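Help! Submission page says 'invalid entity' but I think these are all valid:
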Amino acid sequence: MDWTRAVLIAVVVAAAVVTAVWYAASRVDRMHRRVENAWNSLQLQLMRRASVALDLAHEDLWDPVTSMVAAEAARAALDAPPWGSEHSELSAVLRAAAGDRAQVEADLERPDREPLLRELGAAWYRAILARRFLNEAVSMTTRLRSRHLVRWLHLAGRTPMPQSCDIDDSPPDGLI
Amino acid sequence: MRIGLVCPYSYDVPGGVQFHIRDLAGELIELGHEVSVLAPAEEDTPLPDYVVAAGRSLPIHYNGSVARLSFGPLSARRTRRWLAEGEFDLLHIHEPIAPSLGMLAMLNAHGPLVATFHSSQTASRALRAAYPLVRASMEKIVGAIAVSEDARRTVMDHLGVDSVIIPNGVHVDTFAQSDPDPRWQSTQDRPVVAFLGRVDEPRKGLKVALAAVPTVQAAFPGVRFVIAGAGDAAEELGQLGPERSAVEPVGPISDADKAGLFAGCSVYIAPQLGGESFGIVLVEAMAAGAPVVASDLPAFSRVLDGGRLGRLFTPGDAGALGAGIVGVLSDVEDAQQRVEAAGRAVWRYDWSAVTQSILAVYDTVTGR
C-alpha cells in the first residue's frame, strides 16, 4: 500500500464528511432561526389583533356587556405568550361579538363600523398566516432533526425540539 | 418596501404567470413600493422600466408543455448580480421549482423568501432528479402561496410543503366598465346566452350547453347561443337538429371581446362537469354584470355563495340548465337582484384585495 495515496484518500473522505456535516448543521441552524423568527412574528401579529380588539371594545359598537367581556379577553391576550389559550378565548369572544355572516356583512357596509372591523380582519388574517408559517417551519424542522446524521451527531445541540402552535384562530364568518 | 419579484417564464411570450407578475408589480408600485422584476427576455424586447432582463430563454419541454426557460452561466451570473445589487427587503419568487430563474434565485438567496406556486401539474422527472438540492433550499421559503387548491395539493404531495391559498386577481373595474359588444348584444327578441371555454374539452360541458338549446328555444324562439373558445366543435355541432341555427360558434376571443360579450349578454352559462379549481371566468362575468347559470361544483358554488349570486344546476343536467336559463330570461327582477349582489361580492377577487393579501404575507414574513 502506497502511504501517500492512503493519506490522500483519507483526507478527501474526511473533507467530504466534514462538508456534509457542516452543511447539515447549517441547515438545522437555519431552520432553528426560522422557527424563532416565526414565533416572534406570531407574537407581534397576535398583539396587534388583541389591541385592535381592545379598541373595538372601547367603541360604541356592541352592547355594554359584550364590550366588557371583549375588553377583558383582549387585555388577557395582550399579556399572554403567543401559545397561550388566552388567544383562543379572544377568538371565541370576538366570534360571538361579531355575530353571523349577515351581521358582519351589514356592519362592513356601515361607515362608522367598517374601518375598525377591516383593521381587525387585516390583523386577524396576519395572525392566521403567521401561525400557518410557524407550524410549517416546525414540521420541517422536526423532519430535518429526525434524520440519522442530525441525531447521531447531535447537530441540533441543546435547542429543544420546536413545538407547533395550536391556538384557535378561526375568524368570524365574512370578516376576512 | 423594496421588493424583488422573479419570473421564471419569458416576457417575450405572454402567459398566465407573466400576467400575474405584471399585475402584481403594477399594484405594488401604485401603493408606493419599490419593485424590481427579474425575468427572461431578449435584449430588444420592450420592457417596463422596472423589469430587468436576465437574457434569452429557450423553448423547453417542461411539465407537459413548452415553456421558455432561462438557465446557464449567464442567467446564473445575472441572477446573482440582481440579488446583490437589489438589496431587497423581500424576495418573492414565482414557480420556484421550474428549472429557470426562480430556482436560481432561490438557490442564491440569503434572506427570507416568499414563493408562489402556480402550476397544478405533477412534478417533472427533472425536479425529482434535482430534488435533494432543491429541497434544502426550499427551507428558505418562509411564506409559501398557492394560487388554487389544486396547486396547493400538488406542492403538498410532491414537496411536502404546505401553502396558503391566494387566488389570481381579476380587474373588476375593467369588466364593470366594459361596453357591450354590438355583435353579441342581447335585444328584447333575441337574448344572447354566452358560453366560454375550450369546445373540444368534454369537461368544459359544451355538450350540456347544446342539449339545453331546445328547452330555451321553446320559451324564447329568438335565443342566440354564442359559443366562444378554442378548439374544433364540428362533431358536436354536426349532431344538432333544427336548433343549429340558434348556435353561433365564434372561436377563441380576446380579453376585450370577452368583456364585451359578458357586458351585452343576457346569461353566462358555465356547464363544466368538474375539474374546476376556482372559476375566475364566473367572477369576470359577474363583474361585467352578466347573470350566471353554473354547474353546482364546489368551486362555482363558493363563488356564487351557494346560489345567492347566480343560479346553480346539477352538473350534466341539460334540462336543469335550460330551466335555469329560462328562469333568468323570464324573471328579470330576480336576475337583476342577483346581478347587483354579485357586482358587490366580486370586489373581494379584485387585484386590489389580492394585493392586500399578498402584502399581509410580506408583513408576516418580514415580521413587520
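Support: the input was valid. A stray whitespace character was the problem, and the output above is from the cleaned input. Chain B touches chain A through 19 residues (CB under 8 Å).
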